[in-house]
Amino acid sequence: MMEYRVFNSPIGLIRIAAKDGFIVEIIQCEESAVTEELRYTELLSRAESQLKEYFNHERTCFDLPVRLISTSFRMRVWEKLKEIPYGETKTYGQIAKEIGNPKAARAVGGACHDNPALIVVPCHRVIGSSGALTGFAGGIDSKKILLDLEKNIDPSL
Fold it and tell me: CA 17, 39, 124: angle at the middle one, nearest 5?
């Protein structure tokens, strides 16, 4: 059975989903999309706490059991994203090269867009080759907030 928890963050509502002892989803959501029965398990509580610590500049990496299921290509991309250090960025092209498929920058962008575990799998740290903030499922404003947070820039400025 899927378990859910929702909390407010600097980028809006975040829904955490867990199943069989693993986090399977961390996404932005609208309040109207929160229709599932919310549960408050230890794992969901721990995930929420770690995300709040991240938003409060108290955490730079996560210690959560995450299970994502997708194609082997997307899994490789998501694993590579977890290697991008806090506060740093890489381009879609760099990620494509690092996974051994240098012409797959667009496909890397697709994998980032469909990332089911925002922040924990830091797709927000991937930018365009020109340095432009592009292609974030939660919107460019949210991507900017996350990157500024990691650079200790006040997002209200």
Answer: 30
Q: Which residues contact 14 (CB under 8 A, 6 or more apart)?
A: 6, 7, 8, 26, 27, 28, 29, 51, 118
Given the residues 29, 61, 112, 123, select the one marked as catalytic: 123
Strand bridging mode 3-9 / 12-19? antiparallel
Show contacts of 131-135: CB within 8 Å, 24+ apart.
Answer: 134/109, 135/92, 135/109
For tokens 């020109």, what's the residue?
130
Q: How far apart are CA 119 and CA 16, in angstroms?
A: 11
| 29 labelled catalytic | no
What CA–CA distance (Å, rounded) separates 64 from 81? 16
- Tens of pLDDT, residue by residue over 26-57, are 999 887 656 666 777 899 999 999 999 999 99
Cα–Cα distance measured from residue 93 to residue 129, given in angstroms and rounded to the nearest whole number: 7
Angle at the Cα of 43 from the Cα atoms of 41 and 46, rounded to 5 degrees: 110
